[in-house]
Structure formats: structure tokens, C-alpha cells
Amino acid sequence: MMNMRRLSLPSMDFSALKNRIDWVKAGKVVTFGLLAAAAVMIIFYARNIDWNAVARALKSYSAREIAFAGALTACSFLTYSCFDLFGRHYTGYELRTARVMLITAISYAFNLTLGSIVGAAGMRLRLYQQIGVKAGDVGRIILISVGINWLGYALVAGVLFVAGLIQLPPDWEVNARTLPILGWALIAVVASYIGASIFYGDRGFTVRGREVCLPKTGAAVLQLVLASCNWMIMGGVLYCLMQQKVTYALTLAVVMVSSVAGIISRIPGGIGVLEAVSIAILAPQLTEARVLAGVLAYRAIYYLAPLVLATGGFLALQAADRGQAASAAE
Known about the structure:
- There is one protein chain.
- By secondary structure, the chain is an all-alpha fold.
- Helices cover 75% and strands 2% of the residues.
- It has one domain.
- The chain contains 13 helices and 2 strands, in the order H-H-H-H-H-H-H-H-H-E-E-H-H-H-H.
- Helix 5 packs across helix 8, helix 11 runs antiparallel to helix 12 and helix 12 runs antiparallel to helix 13.
């Protein structure tokens, strides 16, 4: 493979992060506190749920529905695993495509359940450094991947809001009048990115003393297509597990709103957040038992099953790398 020129992108300073022991400890205390508070609220709320009805709703799933949701989940992870390939290109490393995609998928699975510090940052840092990627370049890869993901979010959410395809609960601060405004703002962000790639693609410009290099227009469009497809597939998984008894736009809205709410709450895996958002948006059309059954199935298929597979993949990579290191030392 031809060597690609190294482009200067803003990077995450992992060395500084490692030295902020007090900050990390404080973050852990806050996280455990939020988890404890969420656990208390969930236990309190769970006492009023008809779990027999939830169990009956879970038993109503056919093998075909579960298999289809699993296939969509695999498509989502395959799509997301392409994000780091853009980072590989712009940092100039000659890494095997399969290895990069596997690292991305493993990190994504851990990120969904255990949070971004463990998944998006921790797992990538460990796995990339094992194959010779410098910490600063790992930061660049993460930055590019995260940016692609949220640009896709902005495009899908913007179209949803502008088109008026979703109806949020009336007691929420964001109402029918403000949603289109928010939607146009999100679309403007995406349009600005595409516009910048047209004028500055692969050439770069300086922001606060840092050189930022944007992809060419074709690559920028491909990033948006991949990221948008991933968000829409996620909505499709939940739509399937709600047995198509609500509109696809509503299940997509649940996934997107709960993703932002989970980040704001800082609770790993959005424990309790996804459930609360799902009930708020979907309960007017479905029973709480049906909604909770769908969310539990979604967590099992989209969160827990990939985490089990990712753990196996991580251990396999560790064993393979140790074996190669031992062979090289002989």
C-alpha cells in the first residue's frame, strides 16, 4: 500500500489524561453515584410494573423476529466498524482493514454498555497501541470516528424534525414549534461540513493554531451515508422489537433522544434512560409492558450479545498478539 501523507488533526492528549488521577477518581465517584441513584429509581419504579405482562410480551416474540433484529444489529456494527477506516487514512498508518474494523466493533460494543472512557477511548488506545499506533494518533482516530457518528446523527435528526415525523410528549420543553428550528440548525451543521469539504477538502485550514484537514467531498458524503445508515438501522432494530405496532419514525426518535439523554446523564449504557424515554414516547400507543419488553429485548440483542462477542474478540486479539510477540522473541 502506498504511504499516505500524515495530516495534522487535533488529537486527544492521552498522556495528560493518564496524569489526571484525581479527575479520574472524581469521575468514577460521580458515575457510581449516578448509577446508584438510577438503581434506586429503577427499583422504586419496578415495584409498580406488571412483570407478568412483560414476561408474556417477551414470550410473544417469534424466532423470525429475534433473528431479524439480530441481523440488523450485525449490519449496524459492520457499518459502524467502517468509521475508523477514515481515521486510518488520515493518520497515514498501513493497518489491515479487518483489524481496524474489528477494533472499532469491539470498542463500540464496550462503549455502549460501559461508557466512552472504557470503550471509545480505553479499548481503542490499548488495541491500537498493540499494533504500533501512537497515542496521539489514536486520539485523532477517535476524534474522526466520533465526528462521523454525530454528523450522521445531525442529518437524520434534522430530517426527522423538519419533516414533522415525530410527536414528542406535550409536557417536554421541546415542542412542535421548536423541533423544526432545531432540525434546520442540525441540517445547517451538516451542510456546512459538506461545504467546507468542497472548498478545503484534503487541503486543510488553521483553527486556533491547529491545522485541520477535511476529507474530499466524496469521502465526506460517504461518511454521512454510513453514519446516517447506522442510526437508521438502530431505529430499525427497536422497530422490529416493538413488533411494528408503532411508526418507525417514533422508534428512531426513541433511539436518538435516549442517546443524547444518556450522554447528558453520564450513566454507562444509559441504564434507565432508554426505558424512560421509550415509555414517554411510545406508551401513548402501547402498554408499558409491551414497551418494556421491547426495550429489554433491544438491550439483550443490541447491547449484551455484542458485548459478549466483543469480549471474546478482545481476548482472542490479546492471545494472538502475545503469540506473535513470543514467536518474534525466539
